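Predict fold of COP9 signalosome complex subunit 8 isoform X2; 113 aa.
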Amino acid sequence: MEENFDKLLEQCEAQELEAPGGIATPQVYAQLLALYLLHNDMNNARYLWKRIPQAIKSANPELTAIWAVGQRIWQRDFPGIYTAIAAYQWTENILPVMEALRGFHTSCSDYII
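Predicted 3D structure, encoded as tokens:
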């Protein structure tokens, strides 16, 4: 499964780079942001969030919800991660990534406790 996420990440990065006018679709941004979080690549997630046009952020609540998960990860707020993941009805493109992210952080918190 991880191999599929790695391939999807590469595809999303390529789609962003090749986007007309340098602005990708909201779906590409959402998948890319979620995949960066899954890979615990917080630097790329943060820089992606900064370069997504404000109009796209405002018009796409799922992007904001993904970033809310990212903020909890950044703050190491493990209960908040689960709450943020559970608080949104994810689209079918994002749901598998969020489920994997929840599973990853569940296994990590098992080691911490």
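Residues 95-112 form the longest helix (18 residues).
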